[in-house]
Amino acid sequence: MNRRDRAGRVFSAVAFMVIGAVAAILLLGAGRSPDPARLPAAAASDIGFSQDMIVHHQQAVTMVQAAGGRLSPPVAQLATGIEINQLKEIGQMQGWLSLWKAPQVPSGPPMTWMTAHHGHDGRTAGSGDAPMPGMASVREIQRLGELNGAEADTWFLKLMIRHHEGGLIMSTAAARQSTLQQVRSLATLMTTAQRREIATMLGLLSALGHKPLPSPTRG
């Protein structure tokens, strides 16, 4: 990736996060200065989902950037779409958390907001030292940054399929149990988009003659 492309990506990242945050303010505040007394109260599920999904999305963006300009055009196009969508959603959730006056990051183990309804202990990991389902380890991301050609395509697709599958655990739960309609709506959109992207990635991976990593949703 050359310097101009990198600068453009940084600018786009900031722009999309600002757009997302502004959209969240407009959605919750209807264009007015937020009045705490008028804002809908956020439950632990709304806050916890937003905090955890920001972290999850940020790693997806990191994986796209780690692959750099070493992906083939079809995989690179998919990766760019994932990066753009997830940056927009990060901005939206960060905007919500600001309006709720909630921390941007969780103070304890991840996914504890799911415990009461799903029996999740908040410590399931997709691999090695990963804190949430589907998350890649540091070494796995480092390897992604070292590969080229078909190997880069294959490893990126394997990591991102597993990552999306892990994210689905949270988005499907939030679509059911979040108390605020806008949170449920975003979680539903995430679920639909990530299932569609998983199907596309599985097709690309199969064309390369490879199978996905074990799913974090099983076992």
TrEMBL record:
Residues 46-204 form the DUF305 domain. The chain crosses the membrane at residues 7-30. It comes from the Bacteria. Keywords: Membrane, Transmembrane, Transmembrane helix. It holds the Pfam family DUF305. PANTHER family: SLL0788 PROTEIN. This is Uncharacterized protein (DUF305 family).
